[in-house]
Amino acid sequence: MTAATLAAPNVAALFPTAPDRGTASFGAFVGACAAAGRLVVQPRMGFGDPRRMRDGLERTKSAVATTVGTLTIDSYTRVGAHAAARAALAEGTPLNGYPITTHRAERTRSLLDGVLDARFPVQVRHGSSRPEAIVRALAAAGLDATEGGPVSYCLPYGRTPLAESVDNWARGCELLAALAPPPRTPHLESFGGCMLGQLCPPGLLVALSLLEGMFFARHGIRSVSLSYAQQTDPAQDTEAVRALGRLAEEFLPPGVDRHIVLYTYMGVFPHTAHGATRLLEASARLAVRAGAQRLIVKTAAEAHRIPTVRENVRALETAAATAALTERPALTGDPTDSEVYLEARAFVEAVLDFGEDLGRSLRTAFARGVLDVPYCLHPDNAGRSRSFVDPAGRLRWSAVGAMPVASAALRADRSPMTSDGLLAAVHAVARRYDEDGVAA
Fold this sequence. Notes:
Blueprint: H1 3-7, H2 11-14, H3 26-35, E1 40-42, H4 50-61, E2 69-72, H5 75-78, H6 82-91, H7 105-112, E3 122-125, H8 132-140, E4 145-148, H9 162-179, E5 187-190, H10 202-218, E6 223-229, H11 234-251, E7 257-263, H12 273-290, E8 294-296, H13 309-324, H14 339-352, H15 358-367, E9 386-389, E10 395-399, H16 419-434
Parallel strand pairs: 1-8, 2-3, 4-5, 5-6, 6-7, 7-8
Antiparallel strand pairs: 9-10
Helix pairs in contact: 4-7, 4-13, 8-9, 9-15, 10-11, 10-14, 11-12, 11-14, 12-13, 12-16
């Protein structure tokens, strides 16, 4: 039996009577696939031309994999430059994503007609600290799944004040919940597990993802996904995914649907096709072994240019085939004993100690340096934390500022990170997977 046969989807069996798109639920779909032992794989795909975007969705849906679709939004729309997006469309200038607020709702509905259904939900991915216009546009087009967060779609992407982003995302959550009344269940994914893509120790990534999920729930969202991006060490990453699942059980309100989404490495990607493929395959194995339910893939072209539809589909099928051939281990041991769990819980409890208003508590935590993303240049980030990759390949802290991190977790020699050392750390994963004979 081939890998492709093992990965072949049987989505119709999970949803024998497909309801209309008004009752489709992104979270319920992923949950049903996970219960059937299937890893859901998803591209980060977006094109300005609706015909090309539809082709991408159709080919994603027909891939030999269990998939969900993506509309990734262009950078003009992400920053609210709607006039620039309109001008680009009028001039025929290619965009790096789908301008959902510029195309009429009828145009986007037409793009989705016959593709979007309960067996193939579609998520809008964007990157905006001002999500309200995007939420209105996606709801008008018949969609109800998106992603982001008040911290994760603010600190890495620009200079929007964190307080403004928190308020914007509170309104965005409430708007999404209001525009998708029952039986539709709006879904929101935290990008918090992907802060800056790399060199952020997992305890902070797990904490930020969980805190954003809690923020969504407090503002009316009843279906969430918590993210984590593959980092430098599979064992540490497994600890992180398991810790995230356990903390979600402990801190998310009862009745909130949830799952974990893993991202294939978000940092500097291998330059060779074989290196990129090995890294993608490693992420699929990690997702299965650690217990994630969905995987965001990257392609072999990632280090060079925006991938084509064909390259995206190849990545989806590679990840699905690898997942199908990966044994799901019986998860033993208590995740609460892990270093990642203990560190993440300390971050979460420190933020909650600032008060019941989670948005205000997040702002206070960053203002006081209790949360501090390493190498992040945003004005509202304290900038006193630093990290490094230890000889075993694990991400660790070398400086923590005011964060509640145990001294035992700090780098023993406390030597400062040099510019050469930072560049070496940033490129270490790509270099390792580009080398012949690496264990993927």
